[in-house]
Amino acid sequence: MEKSDLLLQRLDEIGKSLEKSKNGLAILALGSCGIERDRLDQYSDLDFFAIVRDGYKERYIGNLDWLEDVAPIGYRFRNTQDGYKLLYEDGVFCEFAVFEKWELKNIPYSEGSVVWRDEHFDEAVSFATGTVKPESKEIDVDYLVGEALTNLYVGMGRFRRGEKYSALRFVQTYAVDRITELMIYENQQNLKQSSMADRFDLSRRMEKSYPGTGPVLAQFMQGYERTPQSAGAILNFLSTHYKVNNCIKNEITRLILQKD
After folding, report:
1. Could you tell me which residues are beta bridge partners of residue 52?
2. How far apart are CA 195 and CA 198, in angstroms?
3. Which stretches does DSSP call E strand in 46-184?
4. Residue 229 buriedness (CB in 10 A; 0-12 / 13-18 / 19+)
5. How far apart are CA 75 and CA 26, in angstroms?
6. 30: part of which helix (H) or strand (E)?
7. Per-residue pLDDT tens for 168-188?
8. What's the rounded Cα separation, in Å, for the pair 152 and 146?
9. Confidence grade of residue 193 (pLDDT, cut at 50, 70, 90)
10. For residue 97, what are the domain limits?
11. Is residue 156 part of a domain?
């Protein structure tokens, strides 16, 4: 059986199991197993909400028999107060949360698809907030450029001090995060049009949403021993596309070129 078929079958089985448990109300599938099934592939997992009757949340979180009845569980990890990351022995990976109906109005989540619902569960009312978006963040280009530059400066200082792990994080993670925000901002219109965009994690599917960014990002993240080279690529990118203060640019350049 194809992995995508197995995932959808498992999702249906989980819905039936929740129905059989008597106090379940609905299963809402999210992401590639929800309304974006054109993205479903062999690397996908199951993201879903289980909605239960008021007062039964802890029962369904504390006892996963409603999931174990479907197939053997190989690994489980409670990653939030509301749910788990879970791996079935046959390779189906799940990230799920359990909510009582009243909680839904306070939870931001992308639109999903209802896999199963109790006949008394008012889908229209309960999932009315299902398209709640994350708070839109005002983009300040000067702030992002400034953060990236200072990340480079601090990171290169730590590299020269011998703190290579911390240096890697400042240059190849923190600074790159700001760069990707700038890239997304510059391509904002494309982002709005892209069905690949993830409103909750803008780093997702960058390579598909913005073809050609992969090789550029690879230059920004060259590995543990190549933080100076990575910093140089980032500084060159910033200098090419934005107005960069010469004082901090020169200091970063000095640290990049410094011989240990």
Report:
1. 24, 100
2. 8
3. 46-52, 73-77, 83-88, 93-100, 113-117
4. middle
5. 24
6. strand 24-30
7. 999 999 999 999 888 877 776
8. 10
9. very low
10. 3-126
11. yes
